[in-house]
Every structure is written in C-alpha cells, then in structure tokens.
Design goal:
binds 5'-deoxyadenosine, 6-stranded parallel sheet, binds FE2/S2 (inorganic) cluster, 45% helix, single chain, TIM Barrel, 3-stranded parallel sheet, 9 strands, 14 helices, alpha/beta, 351 residues
Length: 351
C-alpha cells in the first residue's frame, strides 16, 4: 500500500532522506493537517539542538551595483530606474562597529557582483572588521567569484559564504537567468567554497516563475546531499522593473512548509526567517521561526541607502535605524517564546 503523507514525514525524520519523487509528493499532496504535524516535528528537532535561542546576524548591504541581469532581481543591470550606490570601506566597517556595540557578533556583507570590491579591497575590509570587532564572524554574500578570490577572502578572515543556488534544476535556472550565467558554474562555486573551508550557505526562492513541486523536490534532494551549514529560503516577490513584474509572489504557507522539511532533512542547519518572508506577511518572520527556522537577519546598512537595495518591491525595514530593527525583532521573538542570543551563532553538532 502507498505510504500516506504522514508516513513519509515520519520516515523523513528518521532517515533524513527521501527520493525526489517522495519529496514531490510531500509538496503536492500536503494538507493543513500534514503541515501541522511536520511543523511540530521540525520545532522539536530544532529545540533539541538550539533550545529557544534565535541567532541574529547584521546584514550590511554594501553595494547595489551588479554586472548580472537575473530576471527576478531588482538590482539587475538592466534596471535603469535604480539609483546605484556602493559603501566605502570605512562606511562598511563603521556599520559593523555600530552593530558590535549593539551585540551583533556576525556580520553579513552582501552586495551585487560589483568589480569595485577587488580581493584586496574586500580582504582589507574583512580584516579591519575582525580587528575592530574581536570574536565576530564575517559572512560574505557577494556572488560568484574565482577560487583564488574565495581563497584570498578566506585567508583574510571570512568565515562563511552565502551563495544561493536559486534552483537545483538546470532548465529552471536558465529560465531565471540570462544566457551568460550558468547553473554548472553556480554549483561549482558552492563546491569550491566548501573545499576551501568556509561554512557554506545555499538557498532558493519559493514560488519563482516556472517552479513546480518537481523543481522544489530537486532543491530538497540537493540540500540533503550537499549538507549546507546554512540555507536561505524566502518567497519570490515581483519587482516592478523586472521581466517578472506581473508574476505572482510565492506563499508564506509553502515557504514555512519547506522550512520545516529542511529542518528535518538537516537538523543542525542555520535557517533564517528571511526579510522576504517578513515582507509578504506582517508576521512572516515569526511564522518562519515557528516552522523551524533559527536565525534572523536585521538590517545594519546605513539608513540612507536601504531603500536602494531593492531586490523586490515593498521590502521592510528600509526606514528604521539598526537599533530599532534589533529591538523590534527581539520583541517579536519574545512574543512567540524565543529569545535572541548574543554570539557568533555557529552551526552546532547534531546531538
Ligand atoms: N524576490 C525574492 N527574493 C529575491 N532575491 C533576489 N530577487 C528576489 C525577488 N524578486 C533573492 C535571491 C538572491 C538573494 C540575495 O535575494 O535568491 O540570491
Ligand atoms: Fe526592522 Fe522590525 S525588524 S523594523
């Protein structure tokens, strides 16, 4: 007899592995009851490793200049309507220092693929942050670079690297990106990063154009096999200056369901409740934590540039000061029975 969805979820918890077809069934045949059972399991698994702690990372959006033309992204080079900026080394380091005073111990430097940040320039910034903020971790999220570049930045002190794979399906990747970008190269970069010694994060958007349960099943299988330390997933949200302007946004419900599945597949993974999730629902980030996420990423960028880091429409937290975002998230976490903890928030062994 065919296994029920409930059976599949229980087996996933035990074995942390299913076939692609089974992952697809979990998505296509999901019911509100199954989602609730899955969420309970995910929360139990997360509590076993991380208790009621939620880690917070300071996101510093260092540049919105990008050489790429991803069809979903508001920073794409074809978007002429966007006022472009890049932060100086000093602006970046002082944003981190401000965060350090507020209790941040991880800084995520994220930006478009902007050639201004050479290995030397970025390496100097990483070294200076580590010098002025002792004991902190630096995460880079600066897209595809050469192995030599990743290596030099690792030597400069970068600890982690986020590079979303965007989709584990090659044909789907081609639908989301211009022809000069390749799925193979993206996957190659992820392997290089892992090889060099970074803690590595992959991830994808939920509800991106052309995505079905089949593509999502591939994403889950990829996560099962690649075993990332971090995984960033959030709903796709259309941006009005991109070719996907009229495409529907992804849903909170499916995003949370996938967060729970990823928690079961890979119990220790660092899983953020993303800003995109907070953008499509007023309690999106809380719902993400309640589904099994354990990280939030308040914005630490200088307030003057926040509106310009416009990956998608209506992004939240663009008018608030860094301290306000931290306080806001701290309150939000307490309201649902969790607490933000000061610390680097490294991945923990699965006990
Ligand atoms: N909606 C949601 N997420 C987006 N990203 C880029 N554009 C969008 C969008 N329109 C995500 C991508 C990228 C990350 C920095 O932001 O997954 O890797
Ligand atoms: Fe930025 Fe709530 S987290 S205002």
């Amino acid at each position: 007899m065919k296994e029920t969805i409930g059976d599949l979820i229980r087996r996933l918890r035990e074995e942390r592995s299913l076939t692609e077809e089974e992952y697809a069934r979990l998505i296509e045949e999901r019911t509100p009851e199954a989602a609730e059972a899955l969420q309970d399991l995910a929360v139990t698994v997360r509590r076993r490793i991380y208790g009621d702690e939620v880690f917070f990372r300071g996101l510093i959006e260092i540049s919105n200049i990008c050489k790429n033309d991803c069809l979903y992204c508001g920073l794409r080079r074809s978007n002429r309507a966007l006022r472009r900026y890049r932060l100086s080394g000093e602006e970046i380091v002082s944003s981190a220092e401000e965060g350090f005073r507020l209790g941040f111990r991880t800084f995520v430097l994220q930006g478009g693929e902007d050639a201004f940040y050479t290995d030397e320039a970025l390496g100097d910034i990483v070294r200076e942050i580590k010098r002025r903020c002792p004991g902190c971790a630096v995460t880079l999220s600066m897209g595809e670079r050469s192995r030599e570049s990743y290596q030099a930045l690792f030597v400069a002190g970068a600890d982690r690297y986020l590079l979303r794979h965007e989709t584990a399906d090659k044909a789907h990747y081609a639908r989301l990106h211009p022809p000069e970008m390749s799925w193979e190269h993206r996957m190659h970069c992820l392997r290089e990063l892992r090889d060099i010694g970074y803690q590595v994060g992959c991830g994808f958007m939920v509800g991106s154009p052309g995505q079905t349960a089949r593509e999502l099943a591939k994403d889950l299988k990829f996560i099962e096999e690649f075993k990332p330390d971090m995984c960033g997933i959030g709903p796709f949200i259309p941006h009005h200056e991109t070719p996907f302007r009229r495409e529907p946004a992804g849903s909170v419900e499916l995003t949370c369901y996938l967060l729970s599945l990823i928690r079961l597949i890979r119990p220790p993974v660092l899983l953020p409740a993303t800003t995109a999730l907070g953008t499509i629902h007023p309690q999106g980030r809380e719902l993400g934590i309640l589904a099994g996420a354990n990280v939030v990423m308040p914005n630490l960028s200088p307030v003057g540039v926040r509106k310009q880091y416009e990956l998608y429409d209506n992004k939240i937290c663009t008018g608030e000061e860094s301290a306000q975002c931290l306080r806001c998230l701290d309150l939000r976490m307490r309201e649902i029975g969790y607490r933000l903890t000061v610390g680097r928030g490294d991945v923990r062994p699965d006990t």
